[in-house]
Amino acid sequence: MLIDLRSDTVTQPTPAMREAMYRAELGDDVYSEDPTINRLQELAAEITGKEAALFVPSGSMGNIAAVLSHAGRGQSVIVGDQSHIYRYEGGAASTLGGSPMYVVPTHSDGMLDLDRLRAAIADDSDEHIAPTALVCLENTHNRCGGTVLPTEQIATIADIAHAQGVAVHMDGARIFNASIALGVPVNELAHSVDSLMFCLSKGLSAPVGSILVGSKAFIHKAHRVRKLLGGGMRQAGVLAAAGLVALEQMVERLAEDHEHCKQLAYGLADYPQIAIDPERVVTNMLLFTLHDSQQRTLSEAEAGQFLAKAREHGVLMGTMGDGLVRAVTHYGLEAEHISAALNGIRKALIEMQL
Ligand code: TLP
Q1: Which segments constitute the Aromatic amino acid beta-eliminating lyase/threonine aldolase domain (predicted)?
Q2: Measured from the CA of 285, which atom of ligand 1 is nearest?
Q3: Alpha carbon distance, N-terminus to C-terminus of the chain
Q4: Residue ranges matching CATH 3.90.1150.10 in the chain
Q5: CB distance 238 to 207 below 8 Å
Q6: Distance between CA atoms of residues 149 and 204, nearest Å
Q7: Residues of the chain with CATH 3.40.640.10
Q8: Sign of dihedral through CA atoms 125, 127, 129, 133?
Q9: Contact (CB, 8 A) for 111 and 149
Q10: What CATH number matches the domain at 8-249, 2.130.10.10, 2.60.40.1120, 3.40.640.10, 3.30.300.30?
């Protein structure tokens, strides 16, 4: 059996999800007539403490719809240099929305650099500069290794933005992981942001779907953008049914994924060729680099060779560039799979002869 640690996106729907999908009551959601989608949207709005919610096919579409709804053509969007929105969504704000992206540094805990953020927000009176419409955050932070931003840090960023009349969107693809790790409900984490996107299809194990939440007026705009992007779906209640199970049954168990990720991190820290700080692993994701006996960090190509060897020993992981390897724990993996993965990785390291 392959132990797939590439992402939590590889999770399969649970038996309860398949049952709910089979039985889902359906309608045409482009007319807002799918009762299962409507129920999911109501539940999502309630859990996040926002007025309204919109079911979208993917996390990327949720973020893109948020950015295009907050920022008009020629209005700029501030993003972290390590953010998913900036690095992995095709530059949608600029490509589709006509919004320049201003990039600010991200600290290793996933926090935006506050001085650079303040400096990046455009002074509205200067006609040389595109006015700022939006600041985007990410929680948990993917490229920082699943780090969490607590309520106070989110509020600090939101205060800076709101004081200048700028909205805040949180890419919370894994916000429930943040919530479980911090022991803080999602509505608290979402309190100071204007919109939040979260994924049903990652750690929560639904097959497809994400949710965008915000004010009624914002969701009204986002609904139009979703149609523009080709994301108006019809009897998509079959998917929303799995999403309802995800929210009702799959949130608390994320703690197990976090435990497993810690177990993996401490195991990896015992291998001399692996550089990792297990104390920094707080959710379901970890990052590490490899080095040889001279303490030289392995290149991206060498990390690729290691991944190929690990695969031969039954363990799948991914790289994030610059020789950085990522492993993600999720539903379907138990403690014994983590032990087996550590074993496979040990064999791959031996064969690398570092
Ligand atoms: N992340 C994927 C890859 O695209 C990297 C993964 O395997 O982690 N925001 C964040 C923070 C994400 O990590 C992702 C997906 C998305 C948005 C986009 O979600 P989808 O894949 O549903 O478009």
Answers
A1: 4-287
A2: 8
A3: 27
A4: 253-352
A5: no
A6: 20
A7: 8-249
A8: positive
A9: yes
A10: 3.40.640.10
Mapping DSSP onto H, E and C, the string for 222-274 reads: HHHHHHHCCCCCCCCHHHHHHHHHHHHHCCCCHHHHHHHHHHHHHHHHCCCCE
On the 0-12 / 13-18 / 19+ scale of CB atoms within 10 A, 230 is exposed
Distances (CA, A) of 71 to 53, 64, 130, 166, 169: 19, 11, 11, 10, 11
Q: Which two tokens stand for residue 80?
A: 């972290």
Q: What's the pTM?
A: 0.97
Centre of ligand 1 from the C-alpha of residue 59, in Å: 6
At residue 53, what are phi and psi to the nearest 5 degrees? -140, 155
pLDDT tens digit sequence for 37-63: 999 999 999 999 999 999 999 999 999
Question: What's the pLDDT tens digit per position in 151-199?
Answer: 999 999 999 999 999 999 999 999 999 999 999 999 999 999 999 999 9
What angle do helix axes 335-352 and 254-269 make, rounded to 10 degrees? 30
Identity of the residue numbered 9: T
For residue 306, how far is its CA from the centre of ligand 1 (angstroms)? Answer: 24
Q: Which residues line ligand 1 (CB under 6 A)?
A: 7, 9, 58-60, 63, 84, 88, 138, 142, 171, 173, 199, 201, 210
Q: Which fold, 253-352?
A: Aspartate Aminotransferase, domain 1 (3.90.1150)
Which two structure tokens, joined as six digits, stand for 137?
């955050």
Helical (H) or strand (E) element with 168 = strand 167-171
Distance CA 210, CA 219 (A): 14
